[in-house]
Amino acid sequence: QVQLVESGGGVVQPGRSLRLSCAASGFTLSRNAMHWVRQAPGKGLEWVASISYDGSRKYYADSVKGRFTISRDNSKHALYLQMNSLRREDTAVYYCAREPPNRFGELFWYFDLWGRGTLLTVSP
Amino acid sequence: SYELTQPPSVSVSPGQTARITCSGDALSKQYTYWYQQKPGQAPLLVIFKTSQRPSGVPERLSASSSGTTATLTIRGVQAEDEADYFCQSADSSGNHVVFGGGTKLTVL
């Protein structure tokens, strides 16, 4: 079954750190660029970060640059998001998202498969 | 920063046609993508590369773009189409993703 399953969310105090994970199954993760997208409660979608198929290129939204780090381990079929210096405004459901495979290695910058998300709450 | 603008809400009766717009300067140069999100669910890609429909998406959903405005059209709206719809593109640099604020489609 082709799916993405996020984990690692929870309640954390402002200023603390947390790492989210995304497990991929049913497809060859190493062929796809991957992304994190978040959605604050009752709000719209916000792109967070992206990583190329081989991890050589990484991109971040201005709101998280310098605090969040995206990474991947293709051998473990996993995507990660290390989040440091967390703020209240980081409270959201975090989705792992895949984009279609691109044999030229460039990013398509859209998402054809999403996980169900994991909720992060930043609160004192 | 780059923005995509959508109407907050659109309401239609069953069987009618719903049109949801998305406006932004970079849309004249970048593809537009559309996602459907139902309550408690993850977003679902319904249109890619401005007007193409993934397999499994009903033919009554279509999309187009003209200048800086993209439009998602749902013909013969059904109750199951009630959802939030988000447009998405890349900014002019091509390496940042931007989402519209979302449009809640209500089927009366």
The chain-level structural class of chain A is mainly beta
N→C terminal distance of chain B: 36 Å
How much of the residues of chain A is beta strand, in percent? over 45%
Radius of gyration of chain B: 13 Å
Count of helical stretches of chain A = 0
**Annotation field: number of helices of chain B:** 0
End-to-end separation of chain A in angstroms reads 39 Å
Q: Regions of chain B with pLDDT < 50 over 5+ consecutive residues?
A: none
Mean pLDDT of chain B: 95
Mean pLDDT of chain A: 96
Question: Helical content of chain A, roughly?
Answer: under 10%
| Percentage of residues in DSSP E strands of chain B | 35-45%
Order of helices and strands of chain B: EEEEEEEEE
Largest interface: A-B, 20 and 24 residues
Order of helices and strands of chain A: EEEEEEEEEEE
The coarse silhouette of chain B is globular
* Number of DSSP-assigned strands of chain A: 11
Largest sheet of chain B: 6 strands, mixed
What does this molecule look like?
The complex is a heterodimer of chains A (124) and B (108). Chain A has strands at residues 3-7, 10-12, 18-25, 34-39, 45-51, 58-60, 68-73, 78-83, 92-98, 113-114, 118-122. Chain A is mainly beta. In chain A, the strands form two sheets. In chain A, strands 2, 4, 5, 6, 9, 10 and 11 form a seven-stranded mixed beta sheet that branches. Helices cover 0% and strands 47% of the residues of chain A. With 108 residues, chain B is mainly β. In chain B, strands 1, 3, 4, 7, 8 and 9 form a six-stranded mixed beta sheet that branches. In chain B, strands 2-6-5 form a three-stranded antiparallel beta sheet, with no helix packed on it. In chain B, a hairpin with a 2-residue loop joins strand 5 (61-66) and strand 6. Chain B is globular, with a radius of gyration of 13 Å. At the A-B interface, strand 5 of A face strand 3, strand 7 and strand 8 of B.
